[in-house]
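Before relying on records like the one below, remember that each one covers exactly one chain. Contacts with other chains, cofactors or solvent are not represented anywhere in the record.
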Amino acid sequence: MSNKLKATLAGVGASLGGVALWIVLSLVGFIAGIAGALMGVLFIFVYKKLNKDDQTKYPFIVACVLILVEIVIAELLTIAFLAAANGVSFGAVMNIDNNKTLILIDILVGLALGYLVFGGYLFSLKRKNQMQNLRQPGVPDAYQNPNGDPNANGNPDQPAPYGQNPDQPAAQPQSPDAEPDQHEPK
């Protein structure tokens, strides 16, 4: 079995945690739409852990499809649990016209919230990758000198002071006994 297939199956299994959360939140009475994003995030998290070399858009496409399919499944399972708890058949619940509209609204709200949060997650991944590309060895930035020493300016998490070139050492303070600079007015 290929590494990609193993990672995909493990990711789908992990994303079912989002389905379980959807059902629990719905039964408690909360809007479960945020769980839709969790379905996609869990898939990508597990997929990337097991298949680190994959740089394609495959996991993101699969996650988007999973969100769509699993939200519908989660909503139908929630209705089945509620019908069983109230002693009503699933078919009877689905035949009520008003319920069809409410179910559709639940699914649409879940998709909207799920894709909104999932989009934010993807944007944060993109920003993280951009920042990592800036920090590659051999690429000097405001925190590194040309030799690649991240501690050239002291704390690598602090930018160079205003007006100071981060590639040059800070000017040393002069002692009071030092001779005055020739360019200083007297």
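The chain has five helices and no strands.
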